[in-house]
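job 3f2a | input accepted
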Amino acid sequence: MTAESGGRKLTVGILGGMGPEATVDLQRRVIELTPATGDGDHIRMLVDCDPSVPSRIAAIIEGSGPSPAPALIAMARGLVAQGADFLCMPCNTAHHYFHDIASQSPVPMINMLEIAAERVHRAQPRQRRVGLLASTALQITSLYEPYFQARDKELLYPAPQTQERLMDLILATKGQQQQLPADILGDAAGQLIDAGAQCLMIACTELSLYTAQLQGLPVAVFDTADLLAREVVDRALGCGHL
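job 3f2a | predicted structure (242 res):
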């Protein structure tokens, strides 16, 4: 441990349930990335996996549902009350409400969007065009644009019909359906590369479950679920910056 964490591992509070499988996937990634020789070396994770959080899709894309912000703020406060030293949220779309949550939290909260944009920039400083594989809500809200524009990068999105298929895959994953073709993510990635994307970023934690489809591509692929897990481990072990 370093002096930054006071000689102890910090406890992470995870705002989850959006969706449940993505929440479990983050926990698995944190465990795999933690240098441990026994149980005691692992990171304490307080997880509120609450699938009743109002739909981000209904609120942002359809405009027909209530804001998830109050539920997310309550979740954050509950995790802090249980002992969380910092918070994270494995849902890109829910970061539309990041500032609402962070402003009401007495402990720091990781901004997955900022972390992802910075890691892409560090790894690919000369590459300007980033292909985004994500929920349609991110394009509607231009959620990632400020973070990438600040680093002189342009975002590319799949064509509308391809984006609809990606949304079908996201929704099917949330509902544990298996009827969809297995190559939807790979097809979307190929189209983005053909359109000029110099690297790709998976910016939906449901799509992160299908990264095997993107092996062997001619460009670098970044995954926000992986980047968030690495940041959680760094901060919990005193290697990051709160």
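job 3f2a | The longest strand covers residues 12-16.
job 3f2a | closed
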